[in-house]
Amino acid sequence: MRQLSVVVAEDAVLLREGLVALLERFGHRVAAAVGDGDALVAAALAHEPDVVIADVRMPPGFTDEGLRAVRELQPRLPELAVLVLSQYVEQTFAEELLESRRGAGTGYLLKDRVGDVEEFASAVRRVADGGTVVDPEVVRQLLARRRDPLGRLTPREREVLALMAEGRSNAAVARALVVTEAAVAKHMANILLKLDLPPAPDDHRRVRAVLAYLRG
């Protein structure tokens, strides 16, 4: 078995050091072990590893730093394999990760559900070899999300759609949310896309989006 070069990005020190020890136990080389998204980007560009193992939420904001780091790395290292090891099912992130990284190895595992180190080591290798490894709970939640199109909307997009359902114009929505009309138009375009409402000559997509919201 070939030795893999790995960059680990995890802010919890004990878990980070545990991952390093585990990877080295299976014969891999940890090129860097870092604790935030910026350091992940720098380390991956410096070492060009076979695979990155990263959390989603890291300093400083503990929101989507892992996502932003992967987004930044993707065009610069298109063949880089990414294995996300997260505490939660970040549905939007998981869906984007799996859909945007076709052709590169990708994985999404939940920390609390990794119960066997041999299986984890196997998952790392499969991702590095270009495969896809996804925790069954992640799959379950993504399938439920697809059955409920409204579940694909961000909180702000739901706010926009709720105001639209009240009959408000783009200008009125912009005033209510203290944003520009251009921002409202962008949110509305995203809503129509996520609700699978393409342009059609006999349909009023805005009305159909509101109906979908009211049914939900």
Describe how the helices and strands are arranged.
Blueprint: E1 5-9, H1 13-25, E2 29-34, H2 37-47, E3 51-54, H3 65-73, E4 81-86, H4 91-100, E5 106-110, H5 117-128, E6 132-134, H6 136-147, H7 155-165, H8 170-177, H9 181-194, H10 205-215
Parallel strand pairs: 1-2, 1-3, 3-4, 4-5, 5-6
Could you characterize what this model shows?
There is one protein chain. Helices cover 51% and strands 13% of the residues. With 216 residues, the protein is an alpha/beta fold. The N and C termini lie far apart (51 Å). α5 links the parallel β5 and β6 (132-134). The longest helix has 14 residues, at 181-194.
Labels describing this entry:
216 residues; alpha/beta; six-stranded parallel β-sheet
Total number of strands: 6
Mean pLDDT: 86
> Which parts are unreliable, with pLDDT below 50 for 5 consecutive residues or more?
none
Largest sheet data: 6 strands, parallel
Q: Taking Cα atoms only, what radius of gyration do you get, to the nearest Å?
A: 20 Å
What general form does the structure show? elongated
Number of helical stretches of at least 4 residues: 10
Helix/strand-derived category reads alpha/beta
Order of helices and strands: EHEHEHEHEHEHHHHH
Helix residue percentage: 40-55%
Distance between the first and last residues' Cα: 51 Å
β-sheet strand percentage: 5-15%
Largest beta sheet: what is the strand line-up? Answer: 2-1-3-4-5-6
